[in-house]
Amino acid sequence: MFRDEESLFKDQAYRYFLFGIFAIAVSIFLSDLILSEMAKYVKMSSDLRETLGEAFRLVVLMVVIFLGHMQGRIYASDRESFAYGLLTGLPILAIAAAQLVLSIVQADPGYFSHTKLIVSTITIYTLTGIFEELLFRGVVLNAFQDAFAAKRAGTIWVSLILSALAFGMMHLVNLASGQDVVGTLMQVIEATAVGLCFGAVYLRCRNIWVVVILHALTDLSRAIGTNAQTAVDAQNANVNAAASILSILPSLVILLGLTLFLLRKSKMEELVEERQEGGIEARPSLN
Q: Which keywords label this protein (predicted)?
């Protein structure tokens, strides 16, 4: 019914959405299935298996990116966009850095004597940051945006929300590993908010390596904070479900508030103009 500028979706737009879903399914679920089958024949520790799992997913995802001819677009980087992205994501960077320092200060002194554990933790969460950002911001967000012929604020928001929901819902798989429902629900909600915020940063700078750094540092600061706490702290961290849910409200407010700020009307207009011109050379100002 609608054609040219009035058309909301591109012809065969469903292919873009299917490609995004395909990338998620293959890089996460299929790679995990293959690795679990391999683990039946090779003995390995849980840390080694998790590290190999993240590395294997990343390799599979890179193949998917290559098959989708998205490598030039996703991996593109320059000093200007990188510096601009770090400035755009500075609040997230500052919070993650402060949380990391606080975790180290409050850590059980014996934790840092486990060098192998620390190296394993850093490796796993770095690989996780690379994989999840390449997948959900690099592939999924871009694929969903490409499905819309109409280049306007509404379609950018829809693409961002859908990619963030996909990122959040992915954490439902933790139920299969025995995680409780409340804890998993908290992860889904918070991960969706994180997906919105990281997606907003990526849309502003179009440099995937910026959000990779933000993601890896955020996850690493939380992981060290969780693993390095004393036994008493660990017990107090799970007092009751209501308190646990309330504990994520401050981060939700910060993440959603920052998302709205980064994609405020004036900046969204610049993003729309950028997409209409078909390029990313014109960087929005920081003002």
A: Hydrolase, Membrane, Metalloprotease, Protease, Transmembrane, Transmembrane helix
